[in-house]
Amino acid sequence: VQRGQVDCALSSYISGEEGFEIIATMKEEIVAAVPGFHPMAAMARERGDALPCVDIRCFADSPFVVAAKGNTVRTVYDRIMEKEGLHPTEVFETNNMQVLCRMVCQGVGAALVPISAIEDNRQSAAYFSIYPRYYMHLGMLLPPDRNELSEAERYLAYLVIRNDLKSPIYQRSLNVRAQQILNEFEGGEAP
Question: How many CA atoms lie within 13 A of 114 on its CB side?
């Protein structure tokens, strides 16, 4: 998008990221995942579907499997570790979120993952909200200074917004531009 090779991209991004015009739709929580045998896993299982909220420093001595550099989740991970002054041992790196989650389930290490990546099998891995909570944002990225969108592009954005609003995993985070597009295709104020 920044190089002008595509007109737009549906992507995750970090709040405050520069070099794009953004139609912001949702935000998704980044959570900690640990192998099922981790000392803190029992606490997560006791809570059932509700994720316990813990300080990331609880995992300071755990090895980590990480998303590859350039991945939004990796950028969030790097910022959290820098902010907290943590330097965990990174034992595996991948650009594939499914592989990363499988590595956690197989006991290779802990990881930070989007909440949408939570595995159903809570015996193989346990999950925690991090305090304070961290998010990655979702939306349509456009080239800088791109003010006008075609009706087809606006409709694509609308379809993405409507679909994302149906997901219980995402939290609504519409910016003015996204709200205008939603209003355009639904008329009036959106819920």
Answer: 23
Beta-ladder partners of 9: 141
What's the pLDDT tens digit per position in 90-105? 999 999 999 999 999 9
Residue 162 pLDDT greater than 90, yes or no:
yes
pTM of the complete model: 0.88
List the end-to-end C-alpha distance of the chain, in Å, as a whole number. Answer: 31
By DSSP bridging, strand 9-13 and strand 125-142 are: antiparallel
Are 154 and 179 spatial neighbours (Cβ–Cβ below 8 Å)?
no
10: helix, strand or coil? strand
Helix (H, G, I), strand (E, B) or coil at 173: coil
* Packing angle, helices 176-186 and 151-165, rounded to 10: 100
